Amino acid sequence: MNKTAIDYKNVYFPPGGILMWIIIYLELITFGMALVAFVYYGAQEPDVFHQSKLQLNPTIGAINTLFLLTSGLFMANAVHFYKEGNIKKTTFFFKLAMLGGFLFLLLKSYEYYTKIDNGITLDTNTFYTFYWMLTGFHIIHVLIGLVILFLTEQSISKNKAELEDVEASATFWHMCDIIWLLLFPIIYLIF
Questions:
Q1: What is the DSSP letter of 124?
Q2: What is the pTM assigned to this prediction?
Q3: What residues have CB less than 8 Å from 24, skipping those under 6 apart?
Q4: 180 — alpha (psi -120 to 50), left (phi > 0) or beta?
Q5: What pLDDT is attached to residue 7?
Q6: CB neighbour class for 90 (10 Å; exposed up to 12, middle 13-18, buried from 19)
Q7: Of all helices (H) and strands (E), which one includes residue 145?
């Protein structure tokens, strides 16, 4: 393959495939618009948003951030080892990445439980409507990501995975990281 063909492939076929990147851009635009609305309504009801934010536990949010970022690092290692042909290390890092996702969900479930136990629901106020909708939509993405990681890891274990499959699953997983990196500071820290 000559250099021109390689450059062409890199531009038009990014890691994970162009369709995955279109999905990611659409998801980021969707979350971005919701966050803009969150900030807009926060400016309309600053006291409600500030008092509501004080009821959140930023330590839980920070720990969840560490879970997802560490999981993303494990996913990057899995792709690296797959490219080197080391299936044993690839599947090991896939499992670690999934563990990070499960830990995120476990801690988020605890946080949700405490909110519900304190009577804080979707209709408590505007802040919590956004909180439940944004974090809930993110959880759906994490769940889908875990299914994708599991299926890809199984495919790798059976020696049936292609590099594009591995990269696509990693790309989707990193999207979950990026979305959380947008949600965490805006919801937990700014107001």
A1: S
A2: 0.88
A3: 171, 172, 175
A4: alpha
A5: 45
A6: buried
A7: helix 126-157
pLDDT higher than 70, residue 177: yes
Tokens 């809930």 identify what position? 136
**Mean pLDDT (the chain, rounded):** 91
Nearest C-alpha neighbor of 161 from the set 89, 85, 61, 98:
85
Q: Dump pLDDT digits (tens) for 102-131.
A: 999 999 999 999 999 999 999 999 999 999
Give burial (CB, 10 Å; 0-12/13-18/19+) of 54. Answer: exposed
Band of pLDDT at residue 1, cut at 50, 70 and 90: very low
Can you tell me the distance from the alpha carbon of 58 to that of 66, in angstroms, rounded to the nearest whole number?
Answer: 12
Structure tokens at 13: 């076929």
Q: How far apart are alpha carbons 125 and 91 in whole angstroms?
A: 44
Using CA atoms, how far apart are residues 20 and 184, in angstroms rounded to an integer? 24
pLDDT at 148 over 70: yes
User: Are residues 139 and 105 in contact, defined by beta-carbon separation less than 8 angstroms?
Assistant: yes
Structure confidence at residue 12 as a pLDDT band (50, 70, 90): low
Longest Cα separation, the chain: 63
